[in-house]
Write a structure and sequence with these properties.
The protein has about 300 residues and is an all-alpha fold. It folds into three domains: about 90 residues, no CATH class; about 80 residues, Serine Threonine Protein Phosphatase 5, Tetratricopeptide repeat (Alpha Horseshoe), CATH 1.25.40; about 55 residues, no CATH class. α14 runs antiparallel to α15. It is elongated, with a radius of gyration of 34 Å. The N terminus is likely disordered.
């Protein structure tokens, strides 16, 4: 590179200034060890490389063994969350004091992970709390067989990842009621419905399905479709999930004429032509000619 073969001279410095190549001037100062000038140039004219300049200066100081001086420069380069723990790892006590003073959630989480790996679970939990890492708190409490404390955190914070983790732990332990509760808090309604189906908890399945996504509603609808006397719930869920063909088909088979009237109001030209004709026939038989004409009009668009 050009700068590697140009020795530091006032002429070279003047040339780069006159060309307004402050990026090259910055590199020129760095290569010559003129860090004060490099940082000044970056601050005033080459701010796009300011963080990189601070980082390079911090690396320079670290290589010289000046770790304490390197720290503020790593901070200015915004790389301190990784570089300072790496640099200070051999001096754990000093590193701990640094992390305590920083009040930085990323550093608190890093320190908590270190403490956890050292089997100091009590201290790890304190730093996970400072980092507001509720998932890790719940994970550690579950590992320590303190499910009640984990549940308290989930109920208090509503953290979805933490609730999901706890729900899985309860499911593995066979505590279905608790698992369903925390799957619901995690908005993992499909999991909650799956467990409720195993327990044949009909009312709970309906409540969960109405909170969930269309696929959750369809899963619940399949459950109700297979249970005698629950076809009305299945029709309603298929309808709400947007599966009009299935809702209509089941409504006809189970003779739910009130549901037919409700569903037909949401039909358009995308509906199955045969089902449209069935609905129209139903309305004709029951003297509701206007509705029959509307449906047949839709059917005509499909044919065209």
């Amino acid at each position: 590179m050009l700068l590697e073969v140009i020795p530091y001279t006032e002429d070279a410095e003047r040339l780069l200034k006159n060309c307004k190549r402050y990026d090259l001037l910055n590199e020129f100062y760095q290569s010559g060890g003129h860090w004060g000038k490099a940082l000044e140039t970056a601050e005033m004219y080459d701010r796009i490389h300011l963080r990189t300049t601070y980082y390079n200066f911090a690396k320079h100081l670290e290589r010289k063994g000046e770790q304490l001086e390197a720290i503020p420069n790593y901070e200015k380069s915004e790389t301190h969350r990784f570089e300072v723990p790496r640099m200070m790892f051999e001096d754990i006590e000093t590193l701990e004091q640094y992390i305590i003073k920083q009040q930085d959630q990323v550093l608190h989480k890093w320190w908590a992970q270190y403490l956890e790996s050292s089997a100091d679970m009590t201290s790890a939990l304190q730093y996970y709390e400072l980092a507001q890492d509720y998932l890790s708190m719940v994970r550690v409490y579950c590992y320590c067989d303190s499910m009640e404390k984990a549940a308290a955190i989930c109920n208090e914070t509503g953290d979805r990842a933490a609730c999901y983790h706890l729900a899985r732990q309860y499911e593995n332990a066979g505590a279905v009621k608790e698992a369903v509760h925390f799957f619901t808090r995690a908005q993992a309604y499909g999991n909650a419905i799956r467990l409720s189906k195993e327990q044949a908890s009909e009312e709970q399945i309906m409540n969960l399905a109405l909170l969930g996504k269309p696929e959750d509603m369809i899963e619940a609808a399949r459950f109700y479709e297979q249970k005698d006397g629950c076809e009305d719930k299945a029709v309603m869920l298929y309808h709400k999930a947007g599966n009009f063909s299935k809702a209509l088909d089941l409504a006809f088979r189970s003779k739910q004429f009130g549901a037919l009237q409700l569903i037909s109001g949401d039909l358009d030209e995308r509906a199955d032509p045969e089902l449209l004709q069935q609905c129209a026939d139903f309305f004709l038989e029951n003297g509701q000619y206007d509705k029959a004409v509307d449906l047949l009009g839709i059917g005509k668009k499909v044919i065209l």
